[in-house]
Each structure stands twice: as structure tokens, then as C-alpha cells.
Amino acid sequence: MAPVDPALLQDLRVRVGDALVTDPAVLAAHAHDSSRAPSEGMPAGLVRATGTSHVSAALAWAHEHGVPVSVRGAGSGLSGGAVAYEGGLVVALDAMRRIRDIDVANRTAVVEPGVVTADLDAAAREHGLFFPPDPASARWSTVGGNIATNAGGLRCVAHGVTADAVMALEVVLADGRVMRTGSLTRKDVVGLDLTSLFVGSEGTLGVITEATVRLKPVPEGPQPTFRASFPTIEQAADAVAAIVAGPEQPEVLELLDALSVEIIQSFQPTGLPAEGAALLVGQTAGPGAIERAESILELCRALGATDGHVSEGDDLLEARRLANPALTAKGLRVSCDVGVPISQLAAVFRGIDDIGAAHGRRVAVVAHAGDGNLHPTVEAGESADEIAAAERVIDDITRLALSLGGTISGEHGIGSVKRHELPWQLDEAALDVQRAIKAALDPRGILTPGRAI
Amino acid sequence: MAPVDPALLQDLRVRVGDALVTDPAVLAAHAHDSSRAPSEGMPAGLVRATGTSHVSAALAWAHEHGVPVSVRGAGSGLSGGAVAYEGGLVVALDAMRRIRDIDVANRTAVVEPGVVTADLDAAAREHGLFFPPDPASARWSTVGGNIATNAGGLRCVAHGVTADAVMALEVVLADGRVMRTGSLTRKDVVGLDLTSLFVGSEGTLGVITEATVRLKPVPEGPQPTFRASFPTIEQAADAVAAIVAGPEQPEVLELLDALSVEIIQSFQPTGLPAEGAALLVGQTAGPGAIERAESILELCRALGATDGHVSEGDDLLEARRLANPALTAKGLRVSCDVGVPISQLAAVFRGIDDIGAAHGRRVAVVAHAGDGNLHPTVEAGESADEIAAAERVIDDITRLALSLGGTISGEHGIGSVKRHELPWQLDEAALDVQRAIKAALDPRGILTPGRAI
Ligand SMILES: Cc1cc2nc3c(=O)[nH]c(=O)nc-3n(C[C@H](O)[C@H](O)[C@H](O)COP(=O)(O)OP(=O)(O)OC[C@H]3O[C@@H](n4cnc5c(N)ncnc54)[C@H](O)[C@@H]3O)c2cc1C
Ligand SMILES: Cc1cc2nc3c(=O)[nH]c(=O)nc-3n(C[C@H](O)[C@H](O)[C@H](O)COP(=O)(O)OP(=O)(O)OC[C@H]3O[C@@H](n4cnc5c(N)ncnc54)[C@H](O)[C@@H]3O)c2cc1C
Questions:
Q1: Is the dihedral of CA B247, B248, B253, B258 positive or negative?
Q2: B chain contacts of residue A164, beta-carbon cutoff 8 Å
Q3: How far A439 CA lies from chain B's nearest CA (Å)?
Q4: DSSP state letters, B198-267
């Protein structure tokens, strides 16, 4: 892209006033997200919207002048979706952070897109409610970003993904028009389901400027955590399948392979048990939570667990929370987000082992196991060659997941990082339909061009 | 439409062979659905597909020649979506009725679109699983029709709508191309969510030829039913709001107003209690189901219920099941499908009373109350004038629901019957986006033209 003509930027300033930021330090800080996607250069400006009208004016301007726009919540995304374009415009939503309403009777909240996930959850808890989506990034990520990526997290096994929590949206379309989707009722079948179309659309179809989301009542009583160690990851995977098929539905069900456990222990000892063993950690909630955790452990023992422990607090999840920083600190930095049907968990773990061995690289796996969603992370140096070599491992793991009936992305989305994998999963007709919808809604291709679709 | 040229029809016969039916009796039987939508004339032919290739060939033919196509499952729809076009083609899916797979470990089923809802449920129950969607039409409606209308039903209050049960689809696009959407994993964020776009699309974007759906484990133990009578419908509505907000989540929570109760009693006495009283009926399932039903009744009594009863069988739902035939038999024949947020239930009932009085017409209301979804049914003679007068009552009720934050359709969809109401709920931009997507996917406008969008 050629640099934006200064007169054009002046026109934008007339439309949005001080919301337009051109300070190079601010622009640089908003040019990348939390993924390994490389920077694509410096944007020409950033609109820090404080209301829908800023977003609308910014997109109308970009649409008129064909300026590429990146859309940004907190920038915690892991697939490159919020990376800025050289000479482009960044639309930043982090200043639109008001919780407009919490409706206790209907268990809904109306929020601006920049509200931090954990802040909404905390506000809901003051009314005995909670916000179900809980990506591990909840303390930074925004609700708008969660919706745009259809974020997952730890509680999905019990409460579903972000899509399940979204009822209605306000969206600014590529040409600046404002549209409302959905309704405040629990059921609504009125024309095409545009709400679902925008959930997970990664900034390619419009900018979400308000969301009405579902809240749930906080379950009464203790929410114990539990853990169990298994001699082999396959045994642990089979235990996951058995737990998911059983009556004691857990709130959280996570799996760490032996290498992850070892790395977490060496990063910050949290008193994890058996060396060389895979670790299942989870949580139960609601009626009989402690008994249900115990009975899950019994099932685990019957399936080969060498030890097991229930705690009334949520401390047993601490090791899981340390996984990301620990792996990065120890040089495991190239990760992916594949998913498989639950029945294929043991098979995918076995295959990942073989792939790591074939490439001669260590691969640690942390999984939202109850959903069949895995984050294998490959060891790599910092050089481009090293990253590329690790990405070849990821490609093999991804093809393996697909061969087992799986998906290339369970929760992080496509962005730029996984775009080359799209045709591995989607057929030609589906790719065509995606492109046709994109062209229909954003004919000039200004919104997050070249990503996700 | 001018009649289709016989040579064209011959070309279709070459493509689909004996699947093409032109017998006038068969065509007439497939020209309308179960709604009050008038017939639009006789179709030129019907393709009774026995496989995806028939559907693909039929749509490719219609696309080439610009022939309007209606898509039909069981024809139990209540909004006119499956009504045939004069000189058009009917694509009938009822012969594609194989259950291809029930995967117990992953709790999924793969079905052809013409499988009858109750048949899938019965097949799943042989494995201790069930199919959550349960429209009152489950014994006739097809799974494809349920998906195309995003059908609701009695168990939605506990298990959500059909959309929540759909994981992946095979769809034939307007030009005959075959596309797959979704994945077999519990989480999947790969490009735009085309699965959700086709759910509820009422035959306007493509024909569903296969679906992968979620099954759930049948809860252990008894599934008692309960009922409670209330002196006023507002008290009953407030009880619904309290139950939904409480800890004892029911499986089913239905409300019949005093007029419905009276009509059902005079149609077929089922031993219903108090005259002139509104009736709440429901069901609980899972751990402590009987105690939970009792505790729901206690709450009802505290909120004014004059009597209450729990039964270990599901007999207390019988009156609810008789509602449709009873109302029709007694001349209440023009119904609608509005929804409101739970907190507005009492207000909408009060308003419906006033509207009925203002028009001087009896209105009986049966509601999937736990979802805030109401089916008011207006008394009318059979003449066109009478129907039109009753439709004016429906229009007023619909505007009332919208003014309370509601929806024009909770579960039956738009079809032709509610199309004039679309702009009451959707803004200009949303209508435009719907049309743009329709034009992108069906540029010749052959699929269910002039309906739903
Ligand atoms: C340590 C760590 C842990 C994580 N754990 C999880 C996890 O458990 N589960 C999970 O799913 N993800 C996880 N993530 C990834 C990330 O946090 C999520 O994808 C999150 O939803 C992104 O939110 P954000 O506000 O940071 O969005 P951004 O990164 O700013 O943007 C993400 C995408 O959404 C688009 N977007 C953002 N806001 C809007 C809007 N208002 N309108 C339209 N488009 C918009 C952007 O254009 C971009 O394509 C993790 C990330 C980190 C760094
Ligand atoms: C007595 C009675 C009770 C009812 N109770 C309920 C209820 O409780 N809840 C509820 O939601 N509905 C209810 N309905 C309405 C109706 O049964 C549902 O809408 C049902 O989902 C329609 O299924 P069908 O197979 O009969 O579809 P049809 O009536 O044949 O078609 C309905 C729509 O779906 C489209 N369609 C059908 N199959 C496909 C396909 N394979 N691909 C693409 N499009 C397709 C058609 O074009 C049409 O627009 C009831 C109807 C009756 C008569």
C-alpha cells in the first residue's frame, strides 16, 4: 500500500476528531497481536472509538477511499487477525468498555465491545450470575474479540462456546451503516441468522459495537478441583472419553501431557505428582460437586490412574494456568489449536508423539480435553528457519487431526496464521460461498482483507 | 409463471429418471403445507429424491432454466415455506430417510434430511441417547425441516433449539453444487459459520441433504410431570419467571390460559382442575426429579397457585398435546408464534387480553412459557373475510410483542405468512444484508423465491 495521502487523513480527522491517533508509538503498539504472525508494517492511523458513531464514520471513510482496516479488541488473538496493514487504519474498540445493562430477570447483559471478559464476569457475579465464556486470556481479552473469534476456554465442556452466549449484536457494516441482529428472546427465527454469521467472523464482515449476551446463575456450593495422573497419555485420553460419556458432567476437564507437566514443574514447582505421567485436571460444580469429583476419580483409577486428589479450592487448576508462560519460557513457542472428536483423543496423542519423533522435535500438548481441543506446542529457536521448521511439524499435526475427523481450529480462528490450511478442511464450494458472502457484505474488501476467509 | 415447456421437463427426466413425478394427484398433495398460506397453484413436477445426486441434478436444471423450486420435508410447516409454485418444481426429501450412523462414543448421528424427528429420537434411545429437538409435530416432521426452520418444541427450555443440536451439514447449493459445512468436533472456528447460516434459512439458500446432529444421554430415573392452577394468567406468568430464575431447572414448562383449558376440557375431558384458571404444566428430569417437581409446586403455591399435582408418568402433559386439535375443532384457527423476554410474560398476556377484547374476538394462548414463546390463536370463521379479521388481531399481538422487546417468530419461521412483518422487527441494513446474502448464494433466485427473506 502506498502511504495514505495526508489530505485524506485530514478528512478522517474532521469526521472523528480526537478519536484519530497518529502518534507513531501508539500505532506501533497496536500493529500486532499475540500470535506469531509477522508485522505487516505501520498503519497510517488509529481510531480509538468511544462510540458507534466513531466506528461508523471511520468505516465510511475507509470504504470511500479503499483503505484497509484492521479491527482490534485487546490484541490477545493467536492467529494474526488484528495485525495492522501498512498504510491502513486500525479501528480500536478498547475504549468502548461500558457495561450498559445487566438484566437479572432475563439473565442478559448489554455491553460495549471493549469490555474485558473478566470485568463482565465480575460484574455479573455481583448479581449471582456469571458470563460463561472464559478463555485463559479472560483478564485481557475483550467481549468483542471473544465474539469475533468465537472464543473457547476452560468451561466450554459444560457451558459451550462464546456463540452459545450471544443473543443480539449491533454491527457497523463495511460502508459505515449500522445494523442490529438477533433479539432479546430465548428463541428467534426471523430471516437468516445474522448473529451467528458475525460470531467468529474475525473482523471480516463488520465491526461489533454492542452485544447482548446470556448470563448464567452461579451454581451453589463448592466448586472443587480434581486431578489424576496416568502412566500414559492414551490412558488419560480414554479416561476423558469415559468421563464425558458418564453421568458426572464436569465444569472443566483439561489434560497436560508428561512433557508439559515436566516443563511446568521446572518453571515453577506447584507440587505436581508423578514424573513422566500425564495429568488430568478438572472441576465440578453444582449439586453434589464433591461427590461427583470423587466419583470421576474413581473412574480414573479404574482406568489406570496412579493417583488422584480432590481439593475444595480451585488450586489444582494452577498448573494448567501456568502452562502458557512456562512453555514459552522453555522455548516451546509454535503452537496450534486442532480439534478431534472425543473418541479420537487417544489416537491423536499417539500420532502427535510419532510426528514429534519423526521431526526430532519436542512437542508438548495441553488440551481442553473434554472438548477434544488440543494445543500442541513445538520447540523452536527464534530464527525464521527454526519457526518454519516447527511450522512443518504443526502442519503434520493438523493433517493428522483432519484425518481423524477433526478441525484445523477449535477456538483461535484462522487469521493469517492458518489461512493456508483452509482448503485442507473446506471444500471448493464452501470456500466459494465464504468468498461470495464476503464480497456481498464488503464489496471493496476493506475489512481485515486477506485473512480468515 | 408460464407452464414449463414439456421439452424442459423431459430434460429433467433424463437427469433424474423415475425420481421425477408428474402425477397430478401427487403434485396436488404436495402443493401446500400445514399453514393458512393459500395455495399458489400447481407445480409442473416433483423430484422425490433418494440421494444427494437427485437434488443436485434437480437444482442444476432449475438454475439453468430459471424454474422456481419449493423444498419440502413433511409439509408440517406453519408459515407457508413449503408451498409449491405454479409451474414450479417441488424437491421432496421425504424418501431420503436413512439414519446413516449413530456414534455412541461421540454422541452424534448422521442422517438423511427426510428422517422423521421421532424416528431419530427412537433410534437414539436404543443406545441410551435422545435427539433434543421435539416440536409437537415430531411424529411427522423431518429432521431436515426442523433444521431449515430451526424448530423449537417442548424441551427447548432445557435443551435449546434445533440449532444447538446441529454440528455439520451437506447442502446442495442453488446451482447444484454440493457443499459441506461444520465439523465433527465439539468446537470449530474455521471461516464463517455456514452451518448456522443454513439452520433456519427455510429453503432459501440451499437444500440440506445430510446432517450430523448432537445426541444427549437420556437422564436416569423418573421424569415426573407436574401441574398447577392459577386464578389469573399474570400470576402464572410470574411463576414461570420465578421458576426459570430458580435452581430447579425444568425439562418442560408450558402454560395454557383459562380459555385453552376450557376448550380442551370440552373437546376431550382430561380431568383438568379449576374452571376459569390458567394452567402451568411441566416436567423435570435427572437427579432428584421428583423432589425438584415438588419444590417447583411449592414455589407456585407461594405465588398464588390454588392447586398443584405431581405425577410420576408424563400424563399431565396430555392436555398440552391436545391443545392444537382442540382449538382447531372449536374454530380457533388463526395462530401466531411471538416471543418475549421472560420478564415480559405477564405484560404480554395482559395485552393480549385487551387486544382480544378490543377486536371482540376470543383469543386462546398456549405458550412454551419457559422460553417466553407464545402461540395465541384467534377465533375465526372459514371465510376469507373472517381470516383477514383474525389476522388483524394477530398483527396487533405481534406489534405488542415487539414493543416488549420480543420477536415476530420464536420457532415457526417467516415463510410467506409473516413476511409482511419482517420490517417491523429488522432494520433496513439487516434486510439489505439478508437480500445481499440471498443474491450471492442464489443469483437466479430459484430457491423458495419471495419467502422468508
Ligand atoms: C495467554 C493467552 C491465552 C489464551 N487462551 C485462550 C483460550 O483459552 N481460548 C480461546 O478461545 N482463545 C484464547 N486466547 C486467544 C485470544 O485471547 C482470544 O482469541 C480472544 O477472544 C481475543 O480477544 P481480543 O479482544 O484480544 O481480540 P483481538 O486479538 O484484538 O482480535 C481478535 C480477532 O477479532 C477481531 N475483532 C476484535 N474485536 C472485534 C470487534 N469488536 N468487531 C469485529 N471484530 C473484532 C479482530 O479483527 C481479530 O480478527 C488466548 C490468548 C492468550 C494470549
Ligand atoms: C401440530 C403441529 C405442531 C407443531 N409444533 C411445533 C413445535 O412445537 N415447534 C416448532 O418449532 N414447530 C412446530 N410445528 C411446525 C413444523 O412442524 C416445524 O416447522 C417443522 O420443523 C417442519 O418440518 P417439515 O419436515 O414438516 O418441514 P416442511 O413443512 O416440509 O418445510 C418447512 C420449511 O423448511 C424447508 N425445508 C424442509 N426441508 C428442507 C431441507 N431438507 N433443506 C432445506 N430446506 C428444507 C421448506 O422449504 C420450508 O421452508 C408444528 C406443526 C404442526 C402441524
A1: negative
A2: 164
A3: 8
A4: HTT-TTSSEEEEEEEEE-EEPPSS---EEEEEESSHHHHHHHHHHHHHSSS--SEEEEE-HHHHHHHHHH
Domain with CATH 3.30.465.10 in chain B: 99-217
Cα nearest neighbour of B338 on chain A: A188
Q: Which ligand is nearest to the CA of A72?
A: 1
Q: Give the ligand at the shortest distance from the Cα of B145.
A: 2
Q: Is the separation of the CB atoms in B200 and B227 below 8 Å?
A: no
Q: Where in chain B is the domain with CATH 3.30.70.3450?
A: 220-321
* A24 Cα to chain B: minimum distance (Å): 32
Fold of A99-217: 3.30.465
| Four-way CATH pick for A6-92: 1.10.510.10, 3.30.1330.10, 3.30.43.10, 3.40.720.10 | 3.30.43.10
Ligand 2 neighbourhood includes B152 CB (under 6 angstroms): yes
DSSP assigned state of A121: H
> Is the Cβ pair B342, A200 closer than 8 Å?
no
Task: List pLDDT tens digits, range A411-448.
Answer: 999 999 999 999 999 999 999 999 999 999 999 999 99
Interface predicted TM-score (ipTM) over 0.90: yes
Ligand 1, residue A448: give the atom nearest the CA: 47
A278-330, pLDDT tens digit by residue? 999 999 999 899 999 999 999 999 999 998 999 998 888 888 888 989 999 99
Distance from CA of B271 to the nearest CA of A (A): 32
Q: How many angstroms separate the CA atoms of B134 and A283, rounded?
A: 32
Closest Cα to atom 1, ligand 1: which residue?
A137
Q: Best substitution site from B76, B94, B253, B419 to test ligand 2's pocket, by max atoms within 8 Å of Cβ?
A: B76
Write out pLDDT tens, residues A355-404.
999 999 999 999 999 999 999 999 999 999 999 999 999 999 999 999 99
For CATH 3.30.43.10, list the domain ranges present in chain A: 6-92
Helix, coil or strand: residue A91: strand
Output the CATH code of domain A220-321: 3.30.70.3450
Count residue pairs from A and B with Cβ separation < 8 A.
252
Query: Looking at the partner chain, which of A407, A429, A433 has a beta carbon nearest the beta carbon of B190?
Result: A407
Q: What is the DSSP letter of B84?
A: P
